[in-house]
Amino acid sequence: MIDAVLPTYNRAPLAFERGEGAWAIAADGTRYLDLGAGIAVNVLGHANPELVAALTEQAGKIWHVSNLYQIPQQQRLAELLVGSTFADTVFVTNSGTEAAELAIKMVRKYWSEKGQPDRIEILTFEGAFHGRSTGAIAAAGSEKMTKGYGPLMPGFRTLPWGDLAALEAAISDRTAAVMLEPVQGEGGIRPMADEDLRKIRALCDRTGALLVLDEVQCGMGRTGRLFAHEWAGVTPDIMMVAKGIGGGFPLGAVLATAEAASGMGVGSHGSTYGGNPLACAVGTRVMEIVADDAFLAEVNRKGALFRQKLEGLVAAHPDVFEDVRGVGLMLGLRCKVAPTEVVAAAYDEHLLTVPAADNVVRLLPPLNISDEEITEAVARLDRAATTLEG
Ligand SMILES: *Cc1c(COP(=O)(O)O)cnc(C)c1O
Hints:
Its main location: cytoplasm. The chain is of the alpha/beta class. It has helices at 37-40, 49-59, 72-84, 96-113, 134-140, 143-146, 164-170, 194-207, 277-290, 293-316, 339-348, 371-389; strands at residues 18-20, 23-25, 31-34, 89-93, 121-125, 156-159, 175-180, 183-184, 190-191, 210-214, 238-241, 252-256, 321-327, 330-335, 351-352, 354-356, 360-363. The protein has a 7-stranded mixed beta sheet with strand order 4-12-11-10-7-5-6, sandwiched between helices. Strands 1-2-3-15 form a 4-stranded mixed beta sheet. Pyridoxal-5'-phosphate is lined by residues 95-97, 100, 129-131, 181, 185-186, 214, 216-217, 242-243. Pyridoxal-5'-phosphate binds next to helix 4.
């Protein structure tokens, strides 16, 4: 018999009734320190009073009107994003997958409007994750996500992660775009070196290919800059954002330069819910808090503190851990045991972490986690690792 909920997830036997900052609390009152943050979503922690206020204030006014009308909250969010980034224009979505889908469509439309409708090839990298739509799984290309789903959307070629020579050989003036995460999330917290991101930008400039960055997981302050590509000093033509931008409310966006978006006229794309007042009221508040130099400086300071403590943890448990990787508060512990074992042992210490590919356990705390909570998290990881040695 099939469960009432379509059984596509392998869920832990845990449920949470409420949350407070970096803590998720079960119905019996047990408090779990949350280093998953709903997979890099709850950037300001659970039940953040400012976000609760933004949501409830809007909830008392109007929830949904559709894009048949002006939506001032959507306009405000878009203007904040444009004001803080490379982008000239924004389409608001409900999720990262929808953002990826539009990014792909925008690339195709761009070349079609330029009189090159056959210029559809998008180069991607192994280990990528762009969501679960038929387009997004075709883009990522992994067997795990695509098996059984029939003929895939054509036009993607997957290259080995970080292999600039392979990219240089593959890219040409027939390439529509290069698409990647500046720091792979699901792929195992794998940062693209700043220097390599600059080379990718240069290859795109040389061939005219658009650079599409997926910052759904690594964006919104996670790496200590508002967007991860800022570390490399380059800008994309198109960028996908989601997860953290809603702080827990479903929200995503595609950001683009005027040139990259030039094919997208009235009627070329749409979404019923996308950019609705509730989501945009919350997203605006998240942007106001996170797109702030002092806030981002704290993310950097805490990221460095966390990393230093994790290096000590790895040194203390050489049979369990291999190394620490990541940027800011997007951290990964490469494991010598199965990462799911580490995640399970951490549950026993009332600590939430998230497994990823490449033998990595992800640590993606709320960006406003305190120093004390970081110390506590490492103490719990230490106890969890000790049980795995025993
Ligand atoms: C989670 C994720 C997505 C998909 O976002 P959804 O909101 O789950 O649709 C796309 N790209 C990256 C890098 C992600 O981490």
